[in-house]
Specification:
By secondary structure, the chain is an alpha/beta fold. Helix content is about 45%, strand content about 10%. It is elongated, with a radius of gyration of 42 Å. Keywords: ATP-binding, Cell membrane, Coiled coil, Hydrolase, Membrane, Metal-binding, Metalloprotease, Nucleotide-binding, Protease, Transmembrane, Transmembrane helix, Zinc.
Amino acid sequence: MAKDNNSNTPPKRPRFSSWWIYGVVIALIIGFQFFGGSSFSSTEKTTTSELQEFLRNGDIAKIVIITNTRQAKVYLTEEALKKDVHKGVAKKPLFPSSGLVPQYVLDYGDLQIFQNEITEIKKENNLDTIVEFDTESNVLGELLLSLLPFALIIGIWIYLMRRMSGGAGGGAGGQIFNIGKSKAKLFDEKTDTRTSFKDVAGLEGAKEEVQEIVEFLKNPDKYTSLGGKIPKGALLVGPPGTGKTLLAKAVAGEAKVPFFSLSGSDFVEMFVGVGASRVRDLFKQAKDKSPAIIFIDEIDAIGRARGKNNFTGSNDERENTLNQLLTEMDGFGTNTNVIVLAATNRADVLDKALMRAGRFDRQIYVDLPDLNERKEIFEVHLRPIKTAETLDLDFLAKQTPGFSGADIANVCNEAALIAARKEKKAVTKQDFLDAVDRIVGGLEKKNKIITPEEKKTIAFHEAGHATVSWMLEHAAPLVKVTIVPRGQSLGAAWYLPEERLIVRPEQMLDEMCATMGGRAAEKVIFDKISTGALSDLEKVTKQARAMVTIYGLNDELGNITYYDSSGQSEYGFTKPYSEETAQKIDQEISKMIEEQYQRAIKLLADNKDKLTELAERLLEKEVIFKDDLEKIFGRRPFEKQEELEPAK
């Protein structure tokens, strides 16, 4: 397309180039090498022995000894210039005004020895060769030598300033002053952003909120005609890997408006005042291109509560950046059509002034996906996977409770890698199960050295978990049990926990009892206990402490909690209860764990023969599944018949 020559666009100013600086430095170095060294670059080099031979043959008319450079100039006679041995040496002056040039030049060592050798040869051969002494100075070379350090320092300084200012090319002079400019990456309707809302599976509530923000910018009159105001900001909050940044990418792909994307750490720099300057520049750019969206990922990098842990009392650059951000979010009017999106998984540490209405009017919680949402996420991530069969997505979703969207993407990728490692042409259902085991439990270690006695202890430990969980109504359903070492564990029992929104005390107590089943089995069978129950003890201690101090599920302490959901306890380093209460808490935790341990021992003692049969089968197969437990124990006593039969 031809350009309009009559355009009123002012011509661009040529960018300042630093390459001429580097060119000057290189020229100085080359000039020093050429002019600063010997000026006899076109003169033949010779040695002391050759000079003595030329002198004995009477070929030398004059020798000029330069005392300050330890060099000697050798001038030949007219007759010597005609000899073949001197063929090719300089016969004419390089510059007529400078007189004759020497035919040879040599470097000598000690001046006195060199002079004595020449005098002795002259006497022996009765020569009238002229010997002169002189000194030589190179003004240009000395000037270049004195300027070289300054040129190098200037060049290095410009190079470092360009690197610190992030300039990969272009003018160094302009980049030095761009350090306070925003580092936001701009996406617009011409940018190839392939992510859309179709790529965001699940998260229906969050996606609806974000889609409405896009509609605000596309059709603002629809909402402002009734007197409403467009929200200034929305904060995406949730655990890591749940899709907060993915939602922002979808907004960039769907919105036909400029989209500025950057991280909270992009405001932080080693220079004072840079963060606030970048905030001002970011909002200025957004206003100039409004309607626009600003997305700040990991905003907790600059948005932490002010005045916390500031023991030095010094001026905090991060707080200055936050203050500027607060000012800018209040500064632009509602009619500028600039909306700020931000994402964090640490909303509890953000400053209250940042969270108030008028800045982030909406807080969108992006939670871990439920069963149906995990199924939708699997559909998205299975598109590029070459599968050997039609996979049951309901089954895969049930196998991944508590997984985030990023975890499910990792499962799909890991399954493909496992299939490729096994030289398969396509990914199968078993590859996905192996991928889940790999992610949850760690890498399988079949070559780990375990003694038969240890292996037997591990088998009864895991069989104890399986037996107790099978006998308890509220324990999680068992999937499989293995004694193959994986990660840091020597064995594992895999469950599919029920996804509950609320948990009752009897459910937590049953889970604690099943967790203590491993140590209880060791006690029942061997009348000994081992260190293998460390992770079990850690888990039940946390559960018991949560029941007592957080959820108020203990009769002794009553309906009280010592949990601070904001994470900013007013008590500081002190405990929010007395020493007497602390002793009661410790006693109740210990009592609760011991009761469940004794309960597990009784269950296993009553079913000792079945426990032994299960452990022996586990030693034989190394991995057993739910079907094996049904053959040994029969149907779980509390399961209803209608739950086992398919719905008609």
